[in-house]
Amino acid sequence: MNDDQSDMTPIGEDARTRSLDARLKAAREREEGKSSSPDSEGSDASYREGNRVLADLLGGILGGLFLGWVIDQFAGTRPWGLLVMMFFGIFVAFRNIVRRSGQGGG
After folding, report:
1. Residues 6 or more apart in contact with residue 62 via CB below 8 angstroms
2. How far is the C-alpha of 28 from the C-alpha of 34, rounded, in Å?
3. Burial class for 60, CB neighbours closer than 10 Å (0-12, 13-18, 19+)
4. pLDDT tens digits for 49-71?
5. Alpha-carbon torsion, ordered 13, 14, 15, 20, to 10 deg
6. Are 61 and 93 in contact, with CB atoms under 8 Å apart?
7. Which residues, 6 or more positions from 45, have their beta carbon under 8 angstroms from its beta carbon?
8. Omega prior to 38 cis, within 30 of 0
9. Are 68 and 81 in contact (CB under 8 A)?
10. How would you write the pLDDT of the chain (106 residues) with one tens digit per residue?
11. Cα 46 from Cα 49, distance rounded (Å)
12. Residue 37, SS3?
């Protein structure tokens, strides 16, 4: 009875399990190769740069609108404070975007 147990392979050493382990290892290596490619790094940088541009644009406009609204509430100059500060916010946002694009993405 002891001889029969020594001929049996341990649990987890099945040929199907070894085959699955080999396929998983190959899939992981392929995924690591994809994630470390220069193209994905470039697209990630472009995505981050686009988000920065969007944040500058929205932040400038919304910040200008908020400051203009506050000025109008305290100075009673409705709607001129809002309009002037909104255009000032747009100007600042575009200036930041142009400055950032001149730096080469960094």
Report:
1. 89
2. 10
3. buried
4. 999 999 999 999 999 999 999 99
5. -80
6. yes
7. 105
8. no
9. yes
10. 455 555 555 665 788 888 889 999 999 998 888 766 666 677 889 999 999 999 999 999 999 999 999 999 999 999 999 999 999 999 999 999 999 998 755 5
11. 5
12. coil
Q: Give yes or no for a contact between 64 and 89, defined as CB atoms under 8 angstroms apart.
A: yes
pLDDT at 69 (0 to 100): 96
Q: Write the burial class of residue 53 (CB in 10 Å: 0-12 exposed, 13-18 middle, 19+ buried).
A: middle
Residue spans per domain, the chain: 2-102
Q: Phi and psi of 12, rounded to 5°?
A: 95, -5
